[in-house]
Design brief:
Keywords: Coiled coil, Signal. There is one protein chain. The chain contains four helices and nine strands. Helix content is 34%, strand content 24%. Helix 3 packs parallel to helix 4. The chain folds into three domains: 62 residues, no CATH class; 34 residues; 65 residues, Beta-lactamase Inhibitory Protein, Chain:B, domain 1, CATH 3.30.1450.
Length: 181
């Protein structure tokens, strides 16, 4: 190593710089900032000091205390706020689903029947609007003829009855089972 990289006493420059920086940090840990002077040494090397240099070309360095504080994790209340936000979003999604379901039910041609109500309608041979197609056919039996969405029943009495299917459910009923009124 040449003498240009040595500080007086044979200490390498990088070790001196690290020692000087450590000394500054250790002695000034409680201060908000400290002043350090960078001066040219007798052989042209850089020397750091807490006192101003006698030589010309000295540079004053202001070193600020660098404390971030806190933790590296999320801020206090982060998880609670995140959970509250997720709850609000879940409730909004649930509200939208309930609205969509209510709208679908309102627009659906089929009504909701309990199994007991459907059984009673089939026993009485009744077909009503909103009834599922399969249950209407079970109530009146096989149709005489199917014309697209029209299920036609021509009874032996000479009277006819019809029901019309839309999206799998009875939309309209004309007449009664067996032609009775």
């Amino acid at each position: 190593m040449d003498d240009g990289h040595l500080i007086q006493g044979g200490l390498p420059v990088y070790r001196f710089l690290a020692s000087a920086a450590l000394l500054v940090v250790a002695t000034q840990a409680m201060a908000q900032s400290t002043t350090v002077y960078r001066c040219p040494g007798p052989n042209g090397e850089t020397v750091f000091s807490q006192t101003p240099c006698a030589a010309t070309g000295a540079e004053e360095l202001l070193i600020h205390r660098n404390e971030i504080g806190g933790t590296l994790g999320p801020s206090p209340g982060y998880y609670e706020e995140r959970a509250a936000q997720e709850r609000r979003q879940a409730l909004q999604r649930l509200d939208r689903l309930e609205q969509d379901l209510a709208e679908a039910r309102a627009n659906a041609p089929c009504k909701e029947f309990s199994s007991g109500d459907l059984r009673t309608l089939r026993i009485r041979r009744q077909v009503v609007p909103g009834m599922p197609r399969e249950d209407a056919v079970k109530s009146w039996g096989a149709p005489t003829r199917i014309n697209g969405t029209q299920y036609a029943y021509h009874w032996s009495s000479g009277i006819s009855a019809y029901f019309y299917i839309e999206n799998g459910c009875v939309r309209t009923v004309q007449g009664y089972y067996g032609g009775r009124t």
